[in-house]
Amino acid sequence: MAVFNDDEQQRIREAVAGAEKCTSGEIRVCIEKTCSEDVLDRSAKYFHKLDMHKTKLRNGVLVYVAVVDRKFAIIGDAGINQAVSADFWDCTKEEMLSHFKTGDIVEGIVTGIKIAGEQLGRYFPHDLNSDTNELSDDVAFMDGE
Hints:
By secondary structure, this protein is of the alpha/beta class. Helices cover 42% and strands 15% of the residues. The two termini are 13 Å apart.
């Protein structure tokens, strides 16, 4: 699925790598053209399919975007949900939405990733001695399973 060109995918990968320098949290981006169910249910499905629930500190974050249907969600694992307030992702979602509304999906995703890394750094700081990249920084493209 060619939703983003190579340069756009590289921008997203670099944003993930940069954000993960602030936190031990693991961030993934999942892209799909359409979302045939509730966006949070769909995000949770891919969260598990991408093994994001298997991180050591249970601090994975998924940024899910269905580009044609214009739906998106940010979900975190149990470790994050126990540490943060219920409205933790609201600011991040609003910043992303401001870019999406102008048609700049990639910038919206990159902005969301950067904010997520900064926010997560408060609760899950990066540890130079023990932090490893547990999940791929590549964009996961799904074909509507």
